[in-house]
Amino acid sequence: MVQTFDIVIAGAGVTGCAIARQLARYDLSICVLEATNDIALGASKANGGLVHAGYDPAPGTVKAKVNARGCALYGMWPEELGFLFRRTGSMVLGFSEGDRAHLEVLEANGRANGVPDLEIIAPERIRELEPRASREATCALWCPSTGYVDPFDVAIACAENAAANGVTFMRSAPIRAIDNLVENAPLQAGGAPLSSQPVRFAIHTPRGTVRARILINAAGSGAAEISAMAGGEAFQLVWRQGNIVVLDKEPRALMPLYPVPTPVSKGVIVTGTVHDNTVITATAALRDPGDCDTYASDVEALLAGARKLVPDLDTRRVVRSFAGGRAVIQGLNDFLIAPSSTARGLFHAAGIQSPGVASAPAVAELMESLLREAGVTLVEKPDWQPRRRAPEDFDRSTTEHQNELIESDPAWGRIVCRCETVPEAEIVAAIHRTPGAVSVEGVKSRCRAGMGRCQSGFCQSRVLEILARELDCRPEDVLLEDEGSWIVDGVLKEGR
Predict the structure, then answer these.
(1) End-to-end CA distance of the chain
(2) Considering only CA atoms, which of 228, 222, 266 is closest in space to residue 244?
(3) C-alpha distances in angstroms, 359 versus 49, 355, 410?
(4) What phi and psi, each to the nearest 5 degrees, are found at residue 60?
(5) CA nearest 392: which of 360, 425, 364?
(6) Under a CB-based contact definition with an 8 Å cutoff, are residues 273 and 152 in contact?
(7) HEC string of 142-190?
(8) What gap in Å lies between CA 10 and CA 254, rounded to an integer?
(9) Residue 30: enclosing H or E segment and its boundaries?
(10) Distances in Å between the alpha carbon of 2 and those of 25, 179, 381, 474?
């Protein structure tokens, strides 16, 4: 069956989900196509969750504009969408006069970009703000507006809110081909609804063909291929791989501490998380597209860089290291957020590298503005619901509320993940939300079962069992993450 939508968004990372949520408030039919089987399985999952303030991008760039605005919007988004956010402030530590000169450049950049309350501070103030920061630091750029989130939470919250407002999500639907059905006819202006516009694209996936009047390219590492298939601009994406290290929980989460950045990276950053872990992020190496291997040399570089910023950091307490890639447009150290000049009806949100998570709310705003400028009439739905009710978090609940939950359903008292105190009922709820978890990692990203110290060593088999039961499938059919990542292969019998 061929389905027709006003807007199709290619990619369900944090950028695509943010755009879907932004546009869901309007009287439009919208579909998000995702190549993998879940939300945020590309670049969005492989980052440290920092909401950068926006002092690093060069003034006048798209990145600078959306970074600062996006950071400001995190004052509203967590309340509306029900995800955790801590605005802790951050410091870029300097250790020499040369570093101080670089901090002055960053401060000037930030002021030009609209970042509030930047200040270069002395050692005494550094120690006051973060007692664990290196005593070798002679100066720092203090930025009160920096914070951090769980990037999965942001993407999933946007997706759930978009779905609640009528957006269709099609997962496991990689785009194989796109037919341009209208040869570059301009979008019709003058107040006509989008539904009266011609259908421009036929988008072919293994799950069927989807037709769209407008196509938004938010496909991350696949954005260049999508553009080429739709008749858009030719550009090349470079895979800038980053390794990340997660340490065990701390009694008090660190504020984000940065070194003086390099031309291609913000450098090795040490930061707390909303769940009180310490994260060391991230290397920046040019590698083959799709390379998500973890390299020992990169991990050692992260640990060494972290010890320079926080000398007392116990880097033996590593619970996980992983890697991902940033889809950087070759020759363009900026985001590409613009209508295509060669394919009418195609809009790009491509080349989203750091600070993608921080920028997502503003990228979504900008995409709405671009649609309006192109002549698309946007009429707000009378029943638009901007708020998403966050799922129950048993571990963070009061004892009184935990008891109420257990009384309502005994499954709330059956703890599956003891590291993170995740009960069976919370896992079941994660599976049945829309769009819900369909894999072990999908459960993990929604309710943290398996995120703790043992990294699912004890709870994975039970999570797999619950998934098989709730999805009405065999245990052998339950995936660790995406296609090909089987956990169980057949039945194990004694003596075999």
Answers:
(1) 45
(2) 266
(3) 12, 6, 41
(4) 95, -10
(5) 425
(6) no
(7) EECCCEEECHHHHHHHHHHHHHHCCCEEECCCCCCEEEECCCCCCCCCC
(8) 36
(9) strand 30-33
(10) 25, 14, 25, 30
459: which 2 tokens?
Answer: 């709870």
pTM for this predicted structure: 0.96
User: Please, are residues 321 and 301 in contact by the beta-carbon 8 Å criterion?
Assistant: no
In b/e form, how buried is each residue of 310-328, taking b as 16+ CB within 10 angstroms?
Answer: beebebeebbbbebbbbbb
Neighbours of 89 (CB within 10 A): 17
Which two three-digit tokens encode residue 163? 């779905």
pLDDT class of 496 with cuts at 50, 70, 90: very low
Give the pLDDT confidence of 391-444 residue by residue, as tens digits: 999 999 999 999 999 999 999 999 999 999 999 999 999 999 999 999 999 999
Phi and psi angles of residue 193, each rounded to the nearest 5 degrees, phi first: -65, 155
Domains of the chain in sequence order: 3-44+152-235+332-373 (3.50.50.60), 90-144 (no CATH), 238-327 (3.30.9.10), 394-477 (no CATH)
Q: Which of 379, 374, 466, 376 is CA-nearest to residue 416?
A: 466
Report how far residue 297's alpha carbon sits from residue 310's, in angstroms, rounded to the nearest whole number.
20
Are 213 and 200 in contact by the 8 Å Cβ rule? The answer is yes
**Which pair of structure tokens corresponds to residue 447?**
């309710």
pLDDT tens-digit readout, 115-143: 999 999 999 999 999 999 999 999 999 99
Q: Give the CA angle between residues 217, 228, 481 to the nearest 5°.
A: 55
Task: Report which of 401, 393, 473 is spatially closest to residue 439, judged by C-alpha positions.
Answer: 473
Proportion of the chain above pLDDT 70, given as a percent: 97
pLDDT tens track for 223-241 = 999 999 999 999 999 999 9
Catalytically active residues, by annotation: 52
Which tens digit of pLDDT belongs to each residue from 18-63?
Answer: 999 999 999 999 999 999 999 999 989 888 999 999 999 999 999 9
**What is the identity of the amino acid at 197?**
Q
Rounded CA gap, 185 and 182, in Å? 6
Helix or strand or coil: residue 380? strand
Token reading at 193: 């609804």
SS3 letters across 448-481: CCCCCCCCCCCCHHHHHHHHHHHCCCCHHHCECC
Q: Contact 20/167 with Cβ under 8 angstroms?
A: yes
Residue 47 to residue 434: CA distance in whole angstroms: 24
Q: Which residue has the tokens 């926080």?
A: 310
